[in-house]
Amino acid sequence: MERRVNTLLGAVGDLVEDVVVQLLEAVNVASDTRSVVTRRRGGSAANMVEAACRAGGRARFIGQVGDDAAGRWLTEQLESVGADVMVRWRGRTGTIVVLVDPSGERTMLADRAACVELSDPDRAWLDGLHTLHVPYYSLVGEPLTSTTVTLAEWANEAGIRVSVDASSAALLEHDGADAALTRMAALHPQVVFANELEAAVLGDGLRPDMLGGATVIVKRGPRPATVWRSGHDPVDVAARELTEVKDTTGAGDAFAAGVLLALADGADAVTAVGHGHDVAAAALRDR
Predict the structure, then answer these.
(1) pTM greater than 0.70 (yes/no)
(2) Phi-psi category of 205—alpha, beta or left, where left has phi over 0 and alpha has psi -120 to 50?
C-alpha cells in the first residue's frame, strides 16, 4: 500500500556513514571472523526521511554533517531519493559501525561527531512542515539537544505535530527512565514510538496520560505492534510476514515514516500503524 501526501514530514538529527559488518559466523575473539563489509548512508533521522520519500511522501532532513567528502556524499545520497535536505557542513562527519549477526540483529558502535554540534536553529527549517520527528538521539549531546528543544517549541507554537522515537535502550538506561521521560514529555509530542526493549526501560511512565495524552506506539519487530491512545484500551496491530531478514537496521525508522505519513493523510492511529508495518516490510525486502 502506498500513500501520497502533500504534507511535509521533517526530522532533526543524525546523518552519518554506516559501516555495516555482516557477520557470517560468531565473532572469533582475538582472531579473524568471516564477514561482508559495506558502506552506506545512515542515521535515524535520515533513515526516517529516506523511508518517507521512498513510500511516496515528502520529507525534510535537518542536521549537520562534516565539511568533508563524506558529508557531501551523504547529503547527495539523501537528495537522490527526493528529500529536502537542510544541512550545515561543519566539523567531521560521523560514522556508525553496525555489526549484524547471522540472525539479522544489529549492534551499533557510534561516533556521531558533527551530528551533535548542530546549533543556532533557524525557524525556516520548519517552513511547511506537518510533523517534526525527533529521535531520542537528538536529545543527547549539546548543542544538538538545545537546538532540538527550541525547534520543538517553535513547532508547537506553529501547530506542527511533534513525534518522538525512544531510539535506544542503552541511551535510555544511561539517562535513567525518569529523566528520559521528562525530556520526551517536555517536547509535548502527539506521537511517541518505542520498541519493546525501550518500553521495558521506560516502564509505567510510557503511558499516554504520563506523556500529555500522546499516542504511544510500541514496536515488536515481527510481532504485533501496540497502539495506546488516551481513553482507549491498547490495540495490537499485526506485522507483515517476511520469509528472510538479513539486516533490521532502519526498520524502526521506516515504520515511523509509514505511521507519520498515514497520520498526515488523515488515517486513525490503528490504520496508520498498519501502514507503518507495510513501509518497514518494504524497507527490509529491499536489503
Answers:
(1) yes
(2) alpha
